[in-house]
Amino acid sequence: MRILVIGSGGREHALIKGLAADPLTTELHAAPGSPAFAELATNHPEYSQVDDPARMVELAEKIGAELVVVGPEVPLVAGVGDALRAAGVKVFGPNKAAAQIEGSKQFAKDVMAAAGVATARAEQITPGASGEDIDAALANFGPNYVVKDDGLAGGKGVVVTQDLTEARAHVDAVLAAGNPVLLESFLEGPEVSLFCLVDGETVVPLLPAQDHKRAFDNDEGPNTGGMGAYTPLPWLPEDGVKRIVDEVCVPVAKEMVRRGTPYSGLLYAGLAWGAQGPSVVEFNCRFGDPETQAVLSLLESPLAQALDATASGTLDQLPELQWKDGYAVIVVLAAEGYPASPVKGAVISGDAITDPEKVLHAGTAQNDAGEFVAAGGRVLSVLGHGADLDAARAGAYAVLDGIDMEGGFYRTDIGAKGHDQL
Ligand code: GLY
């Protein structure tokens, strides 16, 4: 099967690595891709406008793609899935209407309310609201203020703070950009990222993971797209995944069908595991980054077969997914200045950087000398495996010890609290 993967980051590198290992895959392409993918896929850097449905259809038709796997949310929310399906190309990823589960926080809240899914209490503030109205709305929340841009914001939309002035400043900034704001109550409990393949009402969970969103150790510093992750979760109750599927993902999948916008693709449930069990923090309409790099590294079943079954509407016939034993840890090496203003161009060195079993490239380019250089905020996703979480952590940090990048930084505590979160 000839497969086109849309995207260029660490998540897409992990998808490409997984797809390349499946004998069902005969040819792999990436748009725009990344120099680091070149061993496994043909890059199409001239197709960098991944949110342009017509361009993506043009490329899919040009290469005769039999399946398109859409990595990031932006093309899905822009309707790339709809355009490809209209052109008769199979797609892994929801149509625009269903991608609203990530594209609009208020839409997700409405779906959850209709489906009876536990989530944070929320209040929307729309552009044009008076200062008094904003203050009155904020007074209904705290001491932890959760302030969200209602739309897509590339990982920069959410501020969680105890500082009312900072909360108000984020409300003002989002409204000034013309977007509604969602204020939410703070959900207590450790975070879980559960990715599910969804095809209508059929829901197949992958391994649960935990992301680390703050930039620095001990969950300090600004929110980021994610600085590291581990999987599975030793602290999650034995029935944890089943409860999330039964209480969250299946009701949401059914509600999407009921609305006439059935979901097809990857549903990412971001949850807090509280005293009563799972509550939804957010949904995403695609694989998470960096959790995917860890989760897919433990998948034993063929990835192309699983994504193709989802895209073909035959997920209910997919054999049960098989997983490797043990744990996986991903640690992100970020560029100096990330997340506010990452510095580009630092040369990256180390033997492991060309070994996708150890390192997946999230934001790199090649200079004229052929060296890999930092080209994004999150630069590398460094992988460790082990029979237990400590061994997996040690593996990832040992790989990082052999990598140099001027100004680069990473968290040293990814997975460190993984044993005793409850
Ligand atoms: N790791 C968070 C995300 O993918 O949105």
UniProtKB/TrEMBL annotation:
<dbReference type="InterPro" id="IPR000115">
    <property type="entry name" value="PRibGlycinamide_synth"/>
</dbReference>
<dbReference type="InterPro" id="IPR020561">
    <property type="entry name" value="PRibGlycinamid_synth_ATP-grasp"/>
</dbReference>
<dbReference type="GO" id="GO:0046872">
    <property type="term" value="F:metal ion binding"/>
</dbReference>
<keyword id="KW-0436">Ligase</keyword>
<dbReference type="InterPro" id="IPR020562">
    <property type="entry name" value="PRibGlycinamide_synth_N"/>
</dbReference>
<comment type="pathway">
    <text>Purine metabolism; IMP biosynthesis via de novo pathway; N(1)-(5-phospho-D-ribosyl)glycinamide from 5-phospho-alpha-D-ribose 1-diphosphate: step 2/2.</text>
</comment>
<dbReference type="Pfam" id="PF01071">
    <property type="entry name" value="GARS_A"/>
</dbReference>
<dbReference type="InterPro" id="IPR016185">
    <property type="entry name" value="PreATP-grasp_dom_sf"/>
</dbReference>
<dbReference type="InterPro" id="IPR011761">
    <property type="entry name" value="ATP-grasp"/>
</dbReference>
<keyword id="KW-0067">ATP-binding</keyword>
<keyword id="KW-0658">Purine biosynthesis</keyword>
<protein>
    <recommendedName>
        <fullName>Phosphoribosylamine--glycine ligase</fullName>
        <ecNumber>6.3.4.13</ecNumber>
    </recommendedName>
</protein>
<dbReference type="InterPro" id="IPR013815">
    <property type="entry name" value="ATP_grasp_subdomain_1"/>
</dbReference>
<dbReference type="GO" id="GO:0009113">
    <property type="term" value="P:purine nucleobase biosynthetic process"/>
</dbReference>
<feature type="domain" description="ATP-grasp">
    <location>
        <begin position="109"/>
        <end position="312"/>
    </location>
</feature>
<keyword id="KW-0547">Nucleotide-binding</keyword>
<dbReference type="GO" id="GO:0005524">
    <property type="term" value="F:ATP binding"/>
</dbReference>
<dbReference type="GO" id="GO:0006189">
    <property type="term" value="P:'de novo' IMP biosynthetic process"/>
</dbReference>
<dbReference type="InterPro" id="IPR020560">
    <property type="entry name" value="PRibGlycinamide_synth_C-dom"/>
</dbReference>
<dbReference type="Pfam" id="PF02843">
    <property type="entry name" value="GARS_C"/>
</dbReference>
<dbReference type="Pfam" id="PF02844">
    <property type="entry name" value="GARS_N"/>
</dbReference>
<comment type="similarity">
    <text>Belongs to the GARS family.</text>
</comment>
<dbReference type="InterPro" id="IPR037123">
    <property type="entry name" value="PRibGlycinamide_synth_C_sf"/>
</dbReference>
<dbReference type="InterPro" id="IPR020559">
    <property type="entry name" value="PRibGlycinamide_synth_CS"/>
</dbReference>
<dbReference type="InterPro" id="IPR011054">
    <property type="entry name" value="Rudment_hybrid_motif"/>
</dbReference>
<dbReference type="GO" id="GO:0004637">
    <property type="term" value="F:phosphoribosylamine-glycine ligase activity"/>
</dbReference>
